[in-house]
Specification:
With 635 residues, the chain is α+β, with helices and mostly antiparallel strands. The chain has helices at residues 12-29, 38-41, 49-59, 70-80, 90-98, 101-106, 108-112, 147-150, 303-314, 321-331, 337-341, 536-552, 561-574, 576-581, 589-592; strands at 62-64, 116-119, 129-137, 164-184, 192-198, 201-208, 213-253, 261-277, 283-287, 295-301, 346-350, 358-366, 381-423, 430-478, 488-498, 585-587, 599-601, 619-634. The strands form 2 sheets. It has a 16-stranded antiparallel sheet that branches. Strands 16-17 form a two-stranded antiparallel ribbon.
Length: 635
């Protein structure tokens, strides 16, 4: 076998690439197919374990086939101690269930981005907290033969059929449930008694129906759920088998006298076949602002680092219920991508360490990695952009509500008569006589239940602009005892998918119809399936002017303005139809700020200026709505 001649160059990286390419060519001559050569690995073999893990964190490769995580589960059970020994142990069964092969495959992106965290204790208890992190990825190897390759469905040896893959991004928010109710308790219904004090004679009577029992109850329940699925189809991909190294950290809190946290750390390799995407060539872009109105979805990286930094600097406890809620809130950041990438902050309250609720404020800041000649950072977002063809996005919003008003009326009618003779003036006295009574109860109950549900599904098929940008998380905690006084900053990144710029038809074009086909622009806003949305400039104008006037009048405090502005914008988004096509809507500002007035928002829709802008074949909207009225009455 003739070895390739090594050509030394000044650039050591170029020498390494040429030499590795030559070795792989020899391997191909020895019997390996061309699909296993360097072109098929796409340069993965030139990256170190840490570099491959960083690329997996950014590109999120898909797992092909199954994962054998039995050894990983054994290592977790070993670190948990004697409580997890034996297959019949309850803790061991929990480990096998939580870290199953399907879970390891589903939560691989979280393992690369800070770790998959599982608490094995009840809320507030001293159970163990297990974190598994994918810290390194081994060198690529040719995938093992499968049933498909045995059947001849693999790419041809000459490489004429390029490999393509499908990469899916899914996010579920909710269901978010709210419940409120009020009830009136039952009052006493015993009959009123009368006794005539006559010596040696007892005369008594009871009369029913003077006071009757009344019960009433009013309850309201709502539930919201959002599911999003984005698929990048027909993306060129590289298939290779790797050994993924997991770092296992088992943390436990000490007893009541000791608050010290103890940790046990272990490592384990899990082989798996990964499909690495090869996205189109990207170009560097400097964006003055994010086109959040065209945003379809966004994924954030660095969430795990952000969580650990906040827990460390704020001194939060392991297995604190508020810490778990905080971690779940961070996992829902993709649902708040429009607000975050649009420059707005999101906020939530958590009662850390059992103290008073602390307000956590989270915002994003662009990292100025592009600098001018004088060394100053260029404002705005910067990153790598590429155009994806053949992508599909589906977003489903489900909402349901129930209102039940119930009343019950119980009437006790009748009387009783007591006639007896005896001595009651002494402790040893007694009496005997006749007791006659007759009582009946009549109960009347009724309830009215109103139930409604809706399912709105948006679908998009077509090109998407993919943006990869670096950013910085900025977290500020207000209150809560141990909250740090300074803002916490952690570097991260985001991948956002945008629809291309929509091209509107020219209204002045001769012959352009103003009305939609088969309809009238004056009647379109009255359709049941019509969707209303206030543009961002209009919503900001309403919010800004209203809150500024209330602030000047002293009705609200300056510290409450950011929180009230976020809720006011959400209210406008949810009630756009009532605002512009009805009697208006009332924003209950008094529920958020005591003694503040409620705001009534009402607009007038100018239907004469409406124009049909044409159909968008790549977008479809399906809407299903259900209404139920139930009236129950019994006697």
């Amino acid at each position: 076998m003739r070895r390739p001649r090594r050509r030394f160059r000044a650039d050591s990286r170029r020498f390494r690439c040429e030499h590795v390419q030559g070795l792989l060519s020899d391997r191909c001559r020895l019997g390996y197919t061309v699909s296993h050569c360097a072109d098929d690995f796409g340069g993965l073999d030139l990256l170190g374990p840490g570099e491959l893990a960083e690329r997996a964190r950014r590109d999120r490769p898909a797992v092909e086939g199954d994962i054998d995580g039995a050894g990983l589960r054994d290592e977790i059970a070993k670190l948990l101690g004697r409580k997890a020994r034996g297959d019949d142990s309850m803790l061991r069964r929990l480990v096998d269930s939580v870290f199953s092969d399907q879970s390891l495959k589903q939560y691989l992106p979280q393992a690369f981005d800070g770790g998959m965290v599982v608490d094995f204790g009840t809320r507030g208890s001293r159970g163990a907290e297990v974190t598994i992190e994918a810290v390194s990825v081994g060198k690529p190897r040719p995938p093992r033969p499968t049933e498909e390759t045995a059947a001849g469905e693999a790419p041809t040896p000459d490489g004429s059929e390029p490999k393509t893959g499908k990469f899916r991004h899914e996010h579920v928010q909710g269901p978010v449930k709210t419940s409120i109710g009020t009830a009136r308790a039952t009052v006493a219904t015993d009959a009123r008694s009368v006794r005539v004090p006559i010596p040696w004679l007892v005369v008594g009577a009871k009369l029913g129906g003077l006071v009757n029992a009344r019960e009433s109850e009013l309850s309201s329940k709502t539930s919201r759920e959002t599911k999003l699925k984005l698929e990048e189809t027909d993306v060129p991909a590289t298939f290779a088998e790797h050994d993924v190294t997991y770092r296992i950290t088992v943390g436990e809190r000490g007893g009541w006298l000791s608050r010290r946290r103890t940790e046990r750390v272990g490592h384990h390799d899990v082989p798996m076949t990964l499909s690495w995407p090869k996205f189109p060539d990207s170009s560097r872009a400097q964006l003055p602002r994010m086109r959040v109105e065209a945003l379809e979805h966004a994924e954030f990286t660095g969430i795990g680092d952000l969580y650990r930094t906040v827990v460390s600097e704020a001194g939060l406890r392991v297995n604190d219920p508020a810490v778990r809620d905080f971690r779940a809130w961070l996992e829902q950041l993709p649902a708040m991508a429009s607000e975050l990438l649009g420059g707005r902050a999101v906020r939530e309250h958590f009662a850390f360490n059992g103290g008073r609720p602390a307000e956590v404020i989270l915002a994003l800041r662009a990292r100025g990695d592009v600098a001018e000649a004088r060394g100053e950072g260029v404002p705005g977002w910067s990153g790598e952009t590429s155009r994806l063809a053949g992508a599909s996005v589906s977003r489903t919003e489900r909402a349901s509500g129930e209102t039940v008003a119930a009343q019950a009326y119980t009437r006790r009618h009748g009387f009783s008569l007591t006639l007896a003779v005896g001595l009651l003036s002494k402790a040893t006295g007694g009496y005997a006589g006749v007791l006659w009574n007759r009582f009946d109860n009549t109960a009347t109950a009724g309830s009215v239940a109103e139930r409604h549900g809706s399912e709105l599904k948006f679908s998009y098929k077509g090109d998407l602009d993919r943006l990869r940008t670096d950013l910085t998380y900025v977290v500020k905690m207000d209150g809560g005892g141990r909250s740090p006084a300074h803002a916490i900053t952690v570097d991260g990144g985001a991948t956002a998918w945008f629809r291309p710029e929509d091209k509107m038809p020219e209204d002045e074009m001769p012959g352009a119809p103003a009305d939609p086909p088969g309809g009238d622009r004056f009647e379109v806003p009255d359709r049941l399936g019509a969707r209303f949305r206030l543009d961002r400039a209009t919503a900001d104008t309403i919010v800004g002017q209203a809150l500024n006037e209330l602030l000047a009048a002293g009705a609200i405090r300056a510290a409450d303005v950011p929180r009230l502005a976020d809720r006011f914008r959400t209210f406008l988004d949810d009630h756009a139809r009532e605002i512009v096509n009805g009697d208006g809507a009332r924003f209950p500002l008094s529920a958020w700020r005591k003694h503040a007035p409620d705001l009534f928002v009402r607009g007038v829709l100018d239907r004469s200026r409406g124009r049909h802008v044409g159909e968008v074949p790549s977008r479809t909207v399906d809407w299903v709505r259900s209404l139920t009225h139930t009236h129950f009455r019994s006697t």
